[in-house]
Amino acid sequence: MMEITKMHERLRGNPLFSDPSSCLVLTLHSMLSGEDHAKVFDAPRKGVRKIVLSTNIAETGVTIPDVVFVVDSGKVKCQRYHEPSNTSSLKEQFISKAEAMSIVIHAWRHTCNSRDGLSPAY
């Protein structure tokens, strides 16, 4: 979540992304209120590009209908148990190839019309 906040601040500080008449930068993660979660499903005004910075919940548990591109870091935080110290911690690691394919297929399935004859590019 800290990475999402940092990226949000960087984009908001950049003239290309900070103009609300051309770009809407939103975040989506577990610490937001339901009202803030709902904002990512609202269609932006005509001519405004919507950017959603999110944890991987947006790739697996939520479908945002007007998503055109998905940029994924390819990393997740997984809980790991350390037996000698009897503790667990979050460890960042790269996703598997199968998980990456799932992200591509999910994004493709929701952006392409099934009648267009296109298939996901792997």
Key traits:
122 residues; alpha+beta; Rossmann fold; two-stranded parallel sheet; two-stranded antiparallel sheet; 5 helices; globular; Helicase_C-like; Helicase C-terminal domain-containing protein; P-loop_NTPase
What would you say this structure looks like, in words?
There is one protein chain. This protein has five helices and four strands. The chain has helices spanning 2-12, 15-18, 34-39, 57-60, 97-111, and strands at 23-28, 49-54, 75-82, 87-94. The chain has a single domain, classed as 3-Layer(aba) Sandwich (Rossmann fold), CATH 3.40.50. It starts with a helix and ends in an 11-residue tail after the last helix. It is globular, with a radius of gyration of 17 Å. It has 122 residues and is of the alpha+beta class.
